[in-house]
Amino acid sequence: MRLVATKTIRDGSELAKTIYNDNGQVLIQRDIKLTKRMLKRLQDLGITYVYIKDAFTEDIIIDPPIPEELRIEAVQMVRTSFDEIRKQGFNRNAYLFEKTSAKMADMVGNIVNEVSNRDEVISIMSDILISDDYIFSHSINVTIYALAIASELNYSPKKIEHIGLGAMLHDVGKVFIPEPILNKAGRLTNHEFDIIKTHSEEGFNFLRKASTVPLLVAHCAYQHHERLDGSGYPRGIMENDIHPYGKLLAVADVFDAVTSNRVYRDAMLPHEGLEILYSGSGTLFDRGMVEAFRKTIAVYPNGIEVELSDGREGIVVKQNKNLYERPVIRIIREFGQDVKPYDIDLAKVLNVMIVNCDLGVVNKV
């Protein structure tokens, strides 16, 4: 299978991975030939890229970071919990939320088991399902990324549990933001953005009153928008005053925000998201957290087309453990001319590097 931009896919291309909504319903089944109407619908939903079948890449395996069924279940749990809080408020819903937080902790445990037991690096997650509310899928994506970072840093099981729950609940304060502002597709006014920014403190004040939620979990909601140079919010605190959990959540949160599908902009690819993090490393984001994160994700995911420094073009076939910037590439063109496909391992061929990614039209289906 091959990763291709939806706006460049040809009519008649076959979908290689089933697309679900966040209720677990199948929107487009794998093996279906995509029509112009389907492709227009995907673009209207903000889907930037999908996996499709390709004659050169039938053997490429895309391993999701957690089973799709578990991710859908987790997204639904976040949706149900946040909707109940939004409808009833904390004072009338304290007992219900405390039971829900226990269920969330169990879900975090399930995700921890999946993340810690996988040999493969985490690949992109925005192709798995279509969400009609970004907050819910974002909460689970950030949880997966945060747990991967915590594991890479060799945090204790208790710390990993707290970070996972804090990640799942980091945006809970958004349930207190007026929905017309929260779901506005266009540019926010300064006043509207000021209202959005209150979600960090609202989430903290909500979580710290729940007896079943550790205070450090509440601080994940409080500090995930703080930045090392003091330019963040809600308090504008600086490096030494930001808890390590806040620094970790900042990295996971920003990466998922820029690599997720949104109706009003294309999703960035992983290497582009990492560039955002590295550009702020040491000033906005903790260097150690960014480095740990880099070691947990596929910089160039399987199925993406790349251009090499020597003029050859190919498709990423396989990741090399601990050398994720240098995967195995299936060469399909040399200097613009199609060639009989062959594989090269950039972990062994050290005199070339990836210089560009291409999500263009598939030549052969």
From TrEMBL:
SMART domains assigned: HDc (SM00471)
Domain of life per record: Bacteria
Ranges for domain HD-GYP: 113-309
InterPro entries xref list: HD/PDEase_dom, HD_GYP_dom, HDIG_dom
Residue stretches in coiled coil: none
SUPFAM superfamilies: HD-domain/PDEase-like
Record's protein name: HD-GYP domain-containing protein
Species of provenance: Aquibacillus koreensis
